[in-house]
Specification:
- The chain is about 75% helix and about 0% strand.
- The chain is elongated.
- By secondary structure, the protein is mostly helical.
Length: about 170
């Protein structure tokens, strides 16, 4: 069980590292939005790039935020029903869910995201809206990276549930 604890700890630490790295994107997001508001309202000179940058940064924060939310147990679940069930029963249900829904669903999503991002990267896709036609292929690749990290965190959560299932208490 020591090896299992170590694997879970490493996977959880990867998620925490990723979240801490990504949180810093809030600063440039706030700066871009503040700059846009100031130049738009005070100088009546809106930018052509602020909207694109803000939705890209927000998209990255949201995608990586999904990984962190899984770590923190923040995703929508049926906890309001299962909270009163025995811990092992909850773990059994979660284990079945990860095997039948989470891993197949996220793997399919990762496959399609990879195709989507790869095709975009090949043509160096740019946004069609906006005067500066922002490159969007790096943002599409972030989707692939986020799905890969989501699978890693899913493995951690699956192992935590297996531990509860066999040991009767949380890791």
């Amino acid at each position: 069980m020591h090896v299992l604890k170590r694997i879970v700890q490493v996977l959880d630490n990867i998620t925490l590292w990723l979240a801490r790295l990504t949180w810093w994107l809030v600063i440039p997001l706030m700066a871009v939005l503040a700059y846009e508001v100031i130049v738009r309202k005070l100088f009546v000179a809106p930018t052509v790039w602020a909207m694109d940058i803000s939705y890209m940064l927000t998209g990255i924060l949201g995608m990586i935020g999904a990984v962190y939310a899984l770590y923190r147990g923040g995703h929508i679940a049926i906890d309001f029903i299962t909270d009163r069930w025995p811990l092992r029963t909850q773990a059994a249900l979660n284990t079945v869910f990860y095997i039948t829904c989470f891993f197949p669903g996220i793997t399919i999503f990762l496959w399609f995201a990879w195709q989507f991002a790869y095709d975009s990267w090949l043509i160096k896709e740019r946004a069609l809206m906006g005067a500066w036609m922002a490159p969007i292929y790096p943002l599409k690749m972030v989707l692939v990276v986020a799905m890969a990290f989501l699978i890693l965190q899913g493995i951690s959560e699956f192992l935590k549930n297996l531990y509860v299932l066999f040991r009767g208490h949380r890791l």
